[in-house]
Amino acid sequence: xxxxxxxxxxxxxxxxxxxxxxxxxxxxxxxxxxxxxxxxxxxxxxxxxxxxxxxxxxxxxxxxxxxxxxxxxxxxxxxxxxxxxxxxxxxxxxxxxxxxxxxxxxxxxxxxxxxxxxxxxxxxxxxxxxxxxxxxxxxxxxxxxxxxxxxxxx
Length: 154
Fold this sequence. Notes:
Elements: H1 2-15, E1 19-20, E2 25-28, E3 34-37, E4 39-43, E5 48-54, H2 55-59, H3 65-74, E6 77-83, H4 91-106, E7 110-115, H5 119-122, H6 130-146, H7 149-153
Parallel strand pairs: 5-6, 6-7
Antiparallel strand pairs: 1-4, 2-3, 4-5
């Protein structure tokens, strides 16, 4: 978390002049539901929004694709902290995480994560289901691609 805090404080707050919002942000989700985002920042120069989440906020709660779409559409940059190592034993949170990463990837969001382990060890599966294996591998691939210099600079 120190590395993520360093990026947040030194790059986004000091260099790019993002300002912390004093109030939680309410995002409208499908069917009139709302989603409360507690830690958010806004860049006054370009009105880009940034949100900071703990993994548990996003993947242990009953959130779905509509929630993740709302986040991806509103926020330019998303910090996700404290991602645990996951296996098929944490299938619900793993599926939510994969769905979240899919939405952020498709919307070309900037994503900064902190995790319990390295990316290549983050998702471990001994699943016998081809679709789950494919989803796990796609998620890893997307996270790797999102780390590339070109993606970060876009």
